[in-house]
Amino acid sequence: MLTPSVPARPARPARREPGGPVGGDRVGGERGSVLMLMPAAVLVVVVLSALTVDLAVVHLGRARLVHAAEAAANDAATVGLDEARLRAGQGLRLDEARVERAVQASLAASDVAGALAGPPRVVVLSPTAVQVELAMEVRYVFAQAIPGSNGSARVVARATATADRR
Amino acid sequence: MEALPFGLLIFVAGSLLAASAWAVVDVKLAVEAAAREAARAYVEAPDASSAPEAARRRARETIAGHGRDADRVAVEVDHPDGRPWARCVRVVVTATYPVPAITVPWVGGWGDGLDVTSSHSEVIDPYRAGLAGEAAC
User: What is the pLDDT of residues B38-85, one digit of tens each?
Assistant: First the structure.
């Protein structure tokens, strides 16, 4: 007796797990989740830009201070010479009192006059060389808004000048 | 979906703010150099009549060297103690340059922002040769 062949039935669809993909979507439940990282990324970029500006402001303040120190040292090495000795043919020699006055006058005429964090430190290194050291507090632009930040950076500049004949 | 334009807006605003702040820093460096060079040119000039022009010319050259428009820099020379150009006289040279309100890199600037100023002082060498008068300092 022949057994009639049974036609093959189509395969049943796979059982769908609860919470799994629906229809043809493979990542429908996580769609757009990366987009939520955009504000955080933008915030990081803005913070880095603010940091760059603040560091540039500190660098600018240090440059100003260096230029003021150089000008003061230059004036001290020029105006601070002992004129009596020079006129008497006894060579170049700095007078400490004249050097101090010259430094004070130079700083008073500079644009860091009211911003120094203390009196200048003036040292006569040799009969013809003088060193001027200045300190200043430079305020940040954006970092002041950060809780706990002291809002400023202390910069120090030092310049040396030597009197010489030309 | 709305986070994308919001994030882009914050990014553009932050970038413009940083670019504008950096423009001020850059101009400050330029005018500081211009004031310093102009003061040096002024005190080293051969005589009083050529000193102001020497200072302005040096300031313009310095500003141009920093990639800025030399025609926009203003130079003022002042003698704080009121004495004319002579030995021992202290001079203060002030350079001023305008910065636009909004600066976009590689494009340009718009609006009236602020004027960035820097001053530098020098003393005319009391012992230099070629000048009349005595060193009274």
Answer: 999 999 999 999 999 999 999 999 999 998 999 999 999 999 989 999
> How far is Cα of residue A82 from the mean position of the Cα atoms in its chain?
41
pLDDT at B122 over 50: yes
B105 lies within 8 A of chain A by CB: no
Tell me the chain B residues in contact with residue A97 when contact means C-beta distances shorter than 8 Å.
none
Helix (H, G, I), strand (E, B) or coil at B85: coil
Distance CA A72, CA A120 (A): 10
- In chain B, residues with a C-beta closer than 8 Å to the C-beta of A64 are 32, 118
Q: Positive or negative CA dihedral for B53, B54, B58, B59? A: negative
* Paired sense of beta strands A129-139 and A121-126, if any: antiparallel
Alpha helices for B44-132 (secondary structure H): 51-65
Q: Is A44 on the interface with B (CB under 8 A)?
A: no
Closest CA to B11 of A98, A162, A46, A2: A46
Between A78, A105, A106, which is nearest B125 by CB? A78
HSE, CB side, 13 Å, CA atoms: give it for residue A108.
10
